[in-house]
């Protein structure tokens, strides 16, 4: 247990108003205590580590200068908002972060008024904050400030640039803070650059600048169009003197920085001086991911979410997995490399998740055959489509919940042209502690209506390998393979690479009383429940692995429709429009009228927590399936 007196200042901060009562000279100590608090908590209760340590000073400075929650802070990539949570009344509950019924993994307006917008996915902060800034102006709330904090890779997302483009042309007083933790970008040095920074952020300079502007408006010398031209000229002059240029100044957004994002006193000074400036502004800060914890600074990828660890030594507590089935993503990575060695047309594409999806295996062996395109899912799909159009065979791996952001690209840039792109949807189904923004539960329903797609989900690791092999065969067209986060069921997971007949399911077990149809690895849970029900009731249950949602195995479904009056479907996806809906449609269209009970994700957003607990909540665990089957048996 941590000592209550180990956080002398932090334990007195129950809200940002308490923080603002402190003298500015106390802020470095607040930052130190906040950093230690996060290190201490995350060493025992895993979460996003490096990204949160990198924004400690920024978080403290923002809540010190701005009167939150009236002033709005919109976080991008909400995995960097732990310090924000602790400072906004959730300090004592932070030990429940990411736990079932505990604090949410990302900022949520449902949890706190300080959480201004949902931010589990990247790149939405500028658009959302701009909307808030415009709303404040429309309501006459001239004293309300709005800040968008973007960074940690999210500036590569297309939505961020759409927001910037609109911010440059729409009247607003938005402040955008670019948290730049890419250490490949050189820090700003030199007296001239510091002089320009001081001048452009000083209150005296800006009072004079605004006074001259008002006079010029009164005299008719200046209008909005001429003002934009002057800003462009000013930015060009500044770029020439500083010997650097950036896209923001080209968009008529006033640019300040770069400055040290770990100097809380300078941050508060700059934020105070630019706070009331009119028009859109961007403050560029340099930070270090994992700042203040040496091992995290040295290995940012590993320490993004390291699991539990010894905070004193930095030793990570990694479970012994010898003899256990592999992770599905590792089977994907190893199989992709195996296929790429056999087929020189194969390339890999991932939007900023090479380690998470195990495409780093291909990248290491064949760096010229794999592409990390940054947090840009729509681009990843269309980029893959372009390569496929000219003869390559892309395996484009995107987490299921992030593929939602590329829906139009799948339709417009792949499906219409029947391009041979293999879309691998990792983290399909309920994913656990990351919660509703990351659950991959919609893909079966949103992919199913798109023409020309083949949609499949493997029952186990062998099936994943076979589906991947099938997808890269000639003339397959767009091929979707979805699989969950976590481990499979086969320790001996390697098998020969053999083709699967597209649109053909499997009868896993004969039966005569009830037919259970499953798709994907959730079928393994169903198999255990079937075995239990049969032993206890004597009921005979047939088990079918649908394997392909599209095209459906109509021959198998006709067999089921003719022989069974009671059918159970189970899927790790939403019930609305998913696999169960497809079965109901087929039965109705073909004149069958069985009693169909569907098991899956209900029509609500499921909270965060261990996958086994979430499956139980949705009635998708062994006990839930057992209960449904026994109820049907007694009817």
From TrEMBL:
Belongs to the transketolase family. DXPS subfamily. It catalyses: D-glyceraldehyde 3-phosphate + pyruvate + H(+) = 1-deoxy-D-xylulose 5-phosphate + CO2. GO terms for cellular component: cytosol. The lineage of its organism: Bacteria, Pseudomonadati, Bacteroidota, Bacteroidia, Bacteroidales. It comes from Phocaeicola barnesiae. Homodimer. It comes from the Bacteria. This is 1-deoxy-D-xylulose-5-phosphate synthase. Transmembrane segments: none annotated. The gene is dxs. Gene3D superfamilies: 3.40.50.920, 3.40.50.970. Keywords: Isoprene biosynthesis, Magnesium, Metal-binding, Thiamine biosynthesis, Thiamine pyrophosphate, Transferase. GO terms for biological process: isopentenyl diphosphate biosynthetic process, methylerythritol 4-phosphate pathway; terpenoid biosynthetic process; thiamine biosynthetic process. PANTHER family: 1-D-DEOXYXYLULOSE 5-PHOSPHATE SYNTHASE-RELATED, 1-DEOXY-D-XYLULOSE-5-PHOSPHATE SYNTHASE, CHLOROPLASTIC. It is an enzyme of class 2 (transferase). Pathway: Metabolic intermediate biosynthesis; 1-deoxy-D-xylulose 5-phosphate biosynthesis; 1-deoxy-D-xylulose 5-phosphate from D-glyceraldehyde 3-phosphate and pyruvate: step 1/1. Coiled coil: none annotated. Its cofactor is thiamine diphosphate; Mg(2+). CDD domains: TPP_DXS, TPP_PYR_DXS_TK_like. It holds the Pfam family DXP_synthase_N. GO terms for molecular function: 1-deoxy-D-xylulose-5-phosphate synthase activity; magnesium ion binding; thiamine pyrophosphate binding. Thiamine diphosphate binds at residues 79, 120-122, 153-154, 181, 293, 377. The keyword Aminoacyl-tRNA synthetase does not apply.
């Amino acid at each position: 247990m941590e000592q209550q007196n180990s956080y002398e200042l932090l334990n007195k901060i129950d809200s940002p108003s308490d923080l603002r009562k402190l003298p500015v000279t106390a802020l470095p100590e607040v930052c130190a205590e906040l950093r230690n608090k996060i290190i201490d908590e995350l060493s025992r209760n895993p979460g996003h580590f490096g990204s949160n340590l990198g924004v400690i000073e920024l978080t403290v400075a923002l809540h010190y200068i701005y009167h939150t929650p009236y002033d709005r802070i919109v976080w991008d990539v909400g995995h960097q908002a732990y310090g924000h949570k602790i400072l906004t009344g959730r300090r004592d509950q932070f030990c429940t972060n990411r736990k079932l019924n505990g604090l949410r993994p990302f900022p949520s307006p449902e949890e706190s008024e300080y959480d201004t917008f949902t931010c589990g996915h990247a790149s939405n902060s500028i658009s959302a904050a701009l909307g808030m800034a415009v709303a404040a102006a429309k309501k006459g709330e001239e004293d309300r400030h709005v800040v968008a904090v973007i960074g940690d890779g999210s500036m590569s997302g297309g939505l961020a640039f759409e927001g910037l483009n609109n911010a440059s042309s729409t009247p607003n007083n938005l402040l955008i803070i670019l948290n730049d933790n890419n250490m490949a970008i050189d820090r700003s040095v030199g007296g001239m650059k510091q002089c320009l920074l001081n001048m452009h952020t000083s209150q005296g300079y800006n009072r004079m600048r605004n006074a001259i502007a008002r006079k010029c408006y009164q005299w008719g010398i200046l209008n909005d169009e001429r003002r934009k031209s002057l800003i462009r000229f000013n930015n060009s002059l500044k770029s020439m003197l500083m010997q650097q240029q950036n896209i923001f100044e080209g968009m008529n957004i006033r640019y300040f920085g770069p400055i040290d994002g770990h100097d809380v006193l300078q941050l508060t000074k700059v934020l105070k001086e630019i706070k009331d400036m009119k028009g859109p502004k961007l403050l560029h800060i340099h930070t270090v991911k994992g700042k203040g914890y040496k091992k995290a600074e040295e290995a940012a990828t590993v320490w993004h979410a390291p699991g539990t660890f010894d905070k004193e030594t930095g030793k990570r507590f990694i479970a012994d997995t010898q003899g256990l089935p592999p992770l599905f993503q590792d089977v994907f990575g190893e199989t992709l490399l195996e296929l790429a060695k056999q087929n020189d047309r194969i390339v890999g594409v991932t939007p900023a998740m090479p380690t998470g999806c195990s495409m780093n295996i291909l990248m290491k062996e064949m760096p010229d055959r794999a592409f990390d395109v940054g947090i840009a899912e729509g681009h990843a799909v269309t980029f893959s489509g372009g390569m496929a159009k000219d003869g390559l065979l892309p395996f484009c791996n995107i987490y299921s919940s992030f593929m939602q952001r590329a829906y139009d690209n799948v339709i417009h840039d792949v499906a219409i042209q029947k391009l041979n792109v293999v879309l691998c949807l990792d983290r399909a189904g309920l994913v656990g502690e990351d919660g509703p923004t990351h659950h991959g539960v919609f893909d079966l329903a949103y992919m199913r209506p798109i023409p020309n797609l083949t949609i499949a989900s493997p029952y186990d690791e062998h099936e994943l390998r076979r589906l991947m092999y099938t997808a890269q065969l000639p003339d397959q067209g767009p091929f979707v393979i979805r699989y969950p986060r976590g481990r499979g069921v086969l320790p001996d997971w390697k098998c020969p690479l053999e083709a699967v007949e597209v649109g053909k399911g499997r009868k896993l077990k004969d039966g005569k009383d009830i037919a259970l149809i499953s798709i994907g690895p959730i079928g393994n849970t169903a198999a255990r429940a079937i075995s239990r029900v049969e032993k206890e009731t004597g009921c005979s249950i047939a088990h079918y692995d649908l394997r392909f949602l599209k095209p459906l195995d109509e021959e198998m479904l006709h067999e089921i429709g003719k022989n069974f009056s009671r059918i159970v479907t189970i899927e790790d996806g939403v019930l609305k429009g998913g696999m169960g809906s497809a079965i109901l449609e087929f039965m109705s269209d073909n004149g069958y009228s069985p009693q169909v009970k569907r098991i899956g994700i209900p029509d609500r957003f499921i909270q965060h927590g261990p996958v086994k607990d979430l499956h139980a909540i949705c009635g998708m665990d062994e006990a839930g399936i057992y209960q449904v089957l026994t109820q049907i048996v007694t009817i």
